[in-house]
Please model this.
Amino acid sequence: MSSTVGAVPPTRAASPPPSAPLHRRRSYRLGRWDLKYSPYLYVTPFFVLFGVFGLFPVLYTVYVSLFDYELLSGTKEYAGLENYRLLMQDAQFWNAAYNTLGIFLLSTVPQLIVALMLANLLNRQMRARTLLRMGVVIPNITSVAAVGIIFALIFADRYGLINWLLGTVGFDPIAWRDNRFASWFAIAFMVDWRWTGYNALIYLGAMQAIPKDLYESASLDGASTWRQFWTITVPLIRPTILFTVIISTIGGFQIFTEPLMYGNGLVRGGVDHQFQTLAMYIYEKTFTGNSEYGYGAAMSWLLFMMIIIFALINFVLVRRSVKGDKK
Amino acid sequence: MPGAQLWQASPLTYLALILGGVLSIFPIIWSFIIASRDNSAVYEMPPTPGDQLFTNVDRMLANEDAAFLYGLVNSAVVSTVVTISVIFFSSLAGFAFAKLKFRGSNALLLIIILTMMVPTQLGVIPLYLMMVELGWTGTLQAVIVPFLVQGFGVFMMRQYAMSAISDELIEAARLDGCSTWRIYWNVVLPALRPAAAVLGLLTFMQTWNEFLWPFIVLTPDTPTVQYSLKILSSGLYQTDYVALFAGTALATLPLLIVFIIFGRQIIGGIMEGAVKS
Model:
């Protein structure tokens, strides 16, 4: 087709070469076909690739979860809902769910609040603006594996940086791994460190779209900058806040690499599983030892359900609290 | 960037932001410091640099289990292929959604937006079984092919194409006898270059930092750089801490360089509302 096109001189179609009517008709028909159907060709690669490697595996997880895999014999046996029943009685599963929820709350809530404050600070007339923005987003370009390794040493029990700092100001060292809450805190800190600046930039993008005169009239009415922040800025960027909350929920519930690297690359999550997350437990059951694919798949599906439920809860909570602010 | 900047920043604002910046950069700088020390001085406080950086890098590279250099090369290959593919397919589909009329386009676009909500990680077990069936475990295509397209990319390109490319331009190209493909290749793609650069940078960083999936589907024979790090850190009890930190420094360095060169564009891209994953 492109050869036909190439043969047409680059003049306006209003003055077609009268010498080749047949040629023109064919190119016209091809043009119609091109207009009508080629858009489908352009979007097809996405749907095919995503369907095969994105959607299909997620749906197929349901099917896999109904089977009992035997690694040695290489067989699988239909087990119905047995995997789900066993999960309900699995103390380690509930422990992992508890840890995941705890780390999620400890990381997401401060992260988004600080990001909001940070964005508000960055949204001013200032020198070295780009440099400061680059500064807060630098953690995001590091690899999670590297961050896990670095923070494992910062929060090390015996010779860690934090415990050294605590020691110099006269506090006792904290058992950053053995104590459940302390280990959650350290892991949440890594997540916050990596994502706060990133979220701040997303908020900043939304804040810059707010019309200036809103603030001007509020100033005339005598509203303080703090009040303007809560009554103008926050309500107006609500869609963006909701977006970050949902994305953080999806990411936070799947947390895996930070606790893994924090525990020296072991999926156990501490001697007493005190910081083993659901994603780590799924990994332990599926890819180490017995390859219990069915069990792991059942867990994945429950995790998915939890994500949806929590995303909805968060959605409603944030919507209400941001809206409830009087305008 | 013009926008609503109302208040002049106070000294306190600067102080808070500089503090935030220091907190952001410190762990990275500190890891470079440790990478420069002698093994006996790992835990020494306060953090001052040593002079052993190159010795440590050498020893880290000599660790055959980790195959770090090989991991670097693999990561570069994987990230480059994925980035080019994402840019190509996203711009192609984004162009179709923004500028071409076809039945069902709205519904299809909605589906693409919804795919951004599907957490791929939850499909990891079947995906792994698929890779076993295909015989792809331990090969680079296992970490490339599943990531060749990205819903976010399509959406982003569509948004950009809507505002950056005028309908008149496309109409004019058509009257000149361009096929749709020619229009995409000669008119649309060049116009999409700024958005493609941002999408490319974000995709490259994301792919470079990908951890879980390579860790599942690859073997120590074909590591990516994150995989190499994991192997280095698992040998932690033989404690070559400084070599490990030389590894984290080296794995981060390429991205730091990219960031220093393209920082402005990356920030612009994030502010447009990039999706984190």
The first helix of chain A runs from residue 2 to 7. Residues 1-19 of chain A have pLDDT under 50 and may be disordered.
